[in-house]
Amino acid sequence: MDEIEVVVAHAERATVRVGDIFLKMDADQSRLDREIETMRMAPVPTPHILWHQPPVLALAALDGRPLGRLGEPSTASAAAWAAAGGAIRELHDATPPSWQGASVDGLAARLDTECAWLLENAVLPTDLVTRNRRIAETALRPWTPVFMHGDLQVDHVFVEQITDEVTGVLDWSEGAPGDAMYDLATLAIGHPEHLDDILAGYGAGHGADHGADHGADVDRGVIRAWWSYRGLTSARWLLEHGFDPDSPGCEFAVLRAQM
Fold this sequence. Notes:
Pfam families: APH
CATH topology: Aminoglycoside 3'-phosphotransferase, Chain: A, domain 2
Domain Aminoglycoside phosphotransferase: 39-209
Structural class: alpha+beta
Number of strands: 12
Shape: globular
Strand content: 15-25%
Number of domains: 1
Number of helices: 8
Protein name: Aminoglycoside phosphotransferase
Helix content: 25-40%
CATH superfamily: Aminoglycoside phosphotransferase (APH), C-terminal lobe
Distance between the termini: 48 Å
Largest sheet: 5 strands, antiparallel
CATH class: Alpha Beta
InterPro entries: AGP_Transferase (IPR051678), Aminoglycoside_PTrfase (IPR002575), Kinase-like_dom_sf (IPR011009)
């Protein structure tokens, strides 16, 4: 080991890699405690916890490599994407955590606030925000809570290159009871060409573009609605923390594709 790699760093959290150890620092100790508890409850592979000394959590590196990265074509096989879908199904079939997840009213209020900010600051054209807001609102309906990861970005899922098995899932800080469609949408955002592979592993048929796939309660229209919701509501945070949602294939590209 001859260097330290900064994986991510912003005002709320930072993660650095030292050899095969990841050191995760979080300014909110209760959030870090909940993340540890969520990892212990999860029925899918998670990083091994080496030690925890507030505000630092030490995790062992996972085997394999990320399923992909937002804004880049994925080189993972269809079987690997299907394996990720199977892992999500296993998670969603488990007993949800006991704490409260986000409410529909709370999510709607956040959508209102973030859309107003986007328009007031001329971050995106009015018609782009308006159209995507109408799409996003269809996701804000009653759902049966499942064990939701809550931030299932494509680079949080690691797979073994040869066997295509899921070796682990990272970053459980948003784990809570929630909408199954949100996890599926988060994994597929920016990689819609792999949605069928994910749903094949999850246990859903191809179905129609709207309405539920019988037997698995998968609604592709709601998945697309969460794409709009995530793009609209994450933009301000990304911009304020040094990330660019307008990079090719990222959040703003997803919003434009929804048009």
